[in-house]
């Protein structure tokens, strides 16, 4: 342990691991007065796959930049790998990998040359470089194109090279800032496999994403950030359970007046006895209740008796989008921007992002 490393032995997670990240009341206000992060606290144990989920502009990148010592916090206490972000910046930089939103790949160089360049930048001992580069090229499936210029790489290949470059010095903790934005589902899945592999090897991962499915698939635990504040945290399954029940989606033939009338029937007719929540959507209503399955048919009868035509009906388990809706009253749409209820209601789970141009 370096002399200035904090001994956090009294603040270990319950299972004896140490914390890779500890932040308490982190605040960051930009020079123009924008309060990007207001009182964020988190504790990420070593080895965890931790997700930081939120819409555009929520404060994810700002938080990551503080953790990676690229921005000084305005207030709060932050330790990364046991080091203080205010006083031990060099030690933190040596002990983390950072895959930024913008690519670090130099397109005039080959994949192998880019990795060599990253080894230089991180001071990887010369004797270790060749083996490490081969290992990373294999891991991210770029061995076949190792000596090809990165210029011709697809978006997915560049992202995989970016991720490999963040890992040449074998950091115990890696920050991935929206690593799959703009990739097609196939390219995204390949990156997910790679991230899972490095996490299985023991690397702590701090991932920011605006994709609900990504957070759900990869993360052991996550925090949801909105307008610079954490609004929920927990394991994806726990958060979904906390929504409290199952979701009943009812599609209606008629427009807004019929949807409001249907919502009124749910609220006033006491068909569901557990005080359900009801949301008006683009094409009907959504009811969240522990009795969705049992009482769903009774609702259909009540709607028919009121002269409202039902065109579709489905009971399902809650998704992270339902969690987001329950907490914020807004959906998180596929562009990562929070959309008011009843406007853009499809989640990133259902709509893939733009193609990234033919990832092989
Ligand atoms: N250099 C800056 N100066 C002033 N305000 C900034 C600066 N960088 C970011 N902001 C503002 O801070 C807030 C948080 O931005 P941040 O980039 O951290 O959000 P984000 O969740 O990472 O969003 P995105 O998904 O768009 O990257 C936003 O209101 C943004 O406009």
TrEMBL record:
Residue ranges constituting the ABC transporter domain according to the UniProt record: 21-252
Alphabetized UniProt keyword annotations: ATP-binding, Nucleotide-binding, Transport
Phosphoprotein as UniProt keyword: no
Biological-process GO terms, alphabetical: daunorubicin transport; doxorubicin transport
Region Disordered: start-end pairs: 334-360
Name of the protein described by the UniProt record: ABC transporter, ATP-binding protein
Gene3D superfamilies, per database record: P-loop containing nucleotide triphosphate hydrolases
Keyword field contains Cell inner membrane: no
Source organism phylogeny: Archaea, Methanobacteriati, Methanobacteriota, Stenosarchaea group, Halobacteria
């Amino acid at each position: 342990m370096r002399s200035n490393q904090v001994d956090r032995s009294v603040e270990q997670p319950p299972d004896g691991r140490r914390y890779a990240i500890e932040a308490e009341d982190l605040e960051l206000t930009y020079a123009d007065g924008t309060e990007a992060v207001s009182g964020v606290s988190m504790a990420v144990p070593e080895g965890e796959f931790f997700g930081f989920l939120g819409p555009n502009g929520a404060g994810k990148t700002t938080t990551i930049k503080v953790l990676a010592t690229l921005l000084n916090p305005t207030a709060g206490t932050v330790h990364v790998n046991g080091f203080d972000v205010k006083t031990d910046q060099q030690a933190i930089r040596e002990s983390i990998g950072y895959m930024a939103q913008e690519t670090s790949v130099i397109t005039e160089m080959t994949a192998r040359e880019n990795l060599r360049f990253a080894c230089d930048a991180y001071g990887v001992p010369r004797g270790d470089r060749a083996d490490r580069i081969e290992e990373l090229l294999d891991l991210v499936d770029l061995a076949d194109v190792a000596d090809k210029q990165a210029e011709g790489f697809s978006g997915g290949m560049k992202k995989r090279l970016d991720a490999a470059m963040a890992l040449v010095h074998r950091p115990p903790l890696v920050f991935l800032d929206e690593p799959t934005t703009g990739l097609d589902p196939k390219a995204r899945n390949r990156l997910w496999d790679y991230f899972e592999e490095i996490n299985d090897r023991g690397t702590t991962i701090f991932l920011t994403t605006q994709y609900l499915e990504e957070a759900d698939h990869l993360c052991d635990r996550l925090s949801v950030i909105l307008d610079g504040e954490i609004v929920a945290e927990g394991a994806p399954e726990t958060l979904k359970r906390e929504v409290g029940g199952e979701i009943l989606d009812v599609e209606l033939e008629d427009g807004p007046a019929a949807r409001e009338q249907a919502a009124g029937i749910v609220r006033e007719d006491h068909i569901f006895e557990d005080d359900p929540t009801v949301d008006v959507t683009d094409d009907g209503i959504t009811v969240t209740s522990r009795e969705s399955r049992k009482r769903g048919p009774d609702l259909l009868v009540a709607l028919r008796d009121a002269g409202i035509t039902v065109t579709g009906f489905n009971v399902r388990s809650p998704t992270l989008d339902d969690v987001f809706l329950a907490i914020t009253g807004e959906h998180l749409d596929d562009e990562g921007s929070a959309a008011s209820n009843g406007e853009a209601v499809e989640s990133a789970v259902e709509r893939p992002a733009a193609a990234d141009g033919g990832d092989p």
